[in-house]
Amino acid sequence: MKKVILADDEIVILNGLQKLIHWEELKLELVGVAEDGQELLEMVKEKKPHLVVSDIMMPRATGLEVLKQLKEEGREDTKFIFISGYEEFSFAREAIALGAVDYLLKPVSREDLESAIKKATNQIEERTAVEAFKDDEEYLKDLFQTINEGSVFDKNTLYERFADTNMDFTDKFFVGLSVGLLPEPRKSEPAGSFAKRNLARFTMFNRLIELFREEKTGFLLQKEENKIHLIGVFPNEDKHCFYEKYVHPKRMEIEMEYDINLLVGIGMRTEDMACLKNVYKTAKFANELFFFEERAVIDFEDIKKEYHVSFEDYQQGVENVFHSIIAKDGNVLKNVQCLMDMIRQIHYGNQYAAKARVMHFTGDLGMKLHNYKLLSGDFYHMQDKLQEKVESQVTFRGMHTCIMNHYEQLIAEIYRTEKSKDTVLIETVKKYIQNHYADDLSVKELADLACVSINYFSAMFKRETGQNYKAYLTGIRMEKALELLLNTDLKTYEIGEAVGYNNVRRFVDAFKQLYGMSPMDYRKKHYKN
């Protein structure tokens, strides 16, 4: 039995991984689970497992840092399979470079994890990729089937197409190639042009596939509506110039023949056929980076992604935009710019998540402004129109410009109604004071409630009510004190405490200053009359 350790900082995922696989049927024994990187490192050193299935991002040390340290210490017997979220997928290049067996995206299916585990056990048993392929053709058949789920081709047909190429893999390496049309801004088309464009695309993709088949330099792995995914097979001696020598000429030929512009995503390189799924996934990921990179050729190995932003930073960024609008501090567009930069970092590589995040923050912020009665017109209609614009963007830069224009127009409209805004805010504060007059209210608490600075709040309150907030608070307290004096038998100190004074002397002084007599004299005079 080979020993396995699982690692993830989420208990639910750890429990799920333990139940997902029938470990004993695979002749594997779970010898431990770790909830952070440091615990994993210590457990690996102690238990010496054959395999680790680990999350990338964990407290105290990342999964990559654990693997790197083990390699530096010469402990390279343990194989690693990494599992992580889409937004960290750019770490795959580093994981593979460090010798990881596979990199899977959450949520992980049983089939993908079992496939990765079998690949790892093959490597543990020191079987070469070529031997594994000769012994079991089902690996490639299953690869075709998994990647083309729902396709019109079954796995046998796809495998036969590959086998018919009669490629020689001796002294060759594999590289993923994801090729599609270069995205362009959406625009209206003449009637019938959509069908013509689809036919041209179908013909163009078939021609490109044929060019690779003719030269025996690649085979089709998956065909989508707008792109195709190939595995390039090139001589090891051309590893540093394969694009210029084999791919670029084909790209130029297709572009000239069909008068189009192509987008090429290049994946990782490997000589291990067992890594073809990662070769495919990294090429597809590189292709999808056009939204962020705006380059016609994007090489996965050139991607250098560093994370400096947390979701706590993002939440603070949303608050900064909101406070800037309310406080009219002149930093609204600057704060929106910072927030968009954070979204780009957090969701780099996933345009759909980036667009969803933008719509979430604009909707949340818009609802707050709507509740403060600062937006004129139909908020929901405005948000729907904004979503249409965001969804139509083919680059992050275009989406960024769209959002900046939106807020530039929005704050201009809000500031035109500044007077009504201040009135609404002060009414909210006055209602709060009336409900909490007995509390120890500070100007900071009230300014925070209004989402403005203390200085701005003081000036705004005086302008809207004709008095400062302390005088207003005292007036409310004295009104409540009169009610208690005339309708209860409470003692003076009890009434003072009930309206927010913990010192009876201060209460009496405040009462005398407003009514010209002490509370008890006021009560006697009232009853006397």
Give structural notes.
- This protein is α/β, with parallel strands linked by helices and about 525 residues long.
- It has four domains: about 1-125, Rossmann fold (3-Layer(aba) Sandwich); about 135-305, Reverse transcriptase/Diguanylate cyclase domain (Alpha-Beta Plaits, 2-Layer Sandwich); about 310-415; about 420-529, Arc Repressor Mutant, subunit A.
- Helix content is about 60%, strand content about 10%.
- It has a five-stranded parallel β-sheet with strand order 2-1-3-4-5, with helices on both faces. It has a five-stranded mixed β-sheet with strand order 7-8-6-9-10.
- Helix 3 (about 65-70) links the parallel strand 3 (about 50-55) and strand 4 (about 80-85).
- Helix 19 (about 445-450) packs across helix 20 (about 455-465).
- Residues about 125-135 have low confidence and may be disordered.
State the main characteristics.
529 residues, alpha/beta, Rossmann fold, Alpha-Beta Plaits, five-stranded parallel sheet, five-stranded mixed sheet, 24 helices
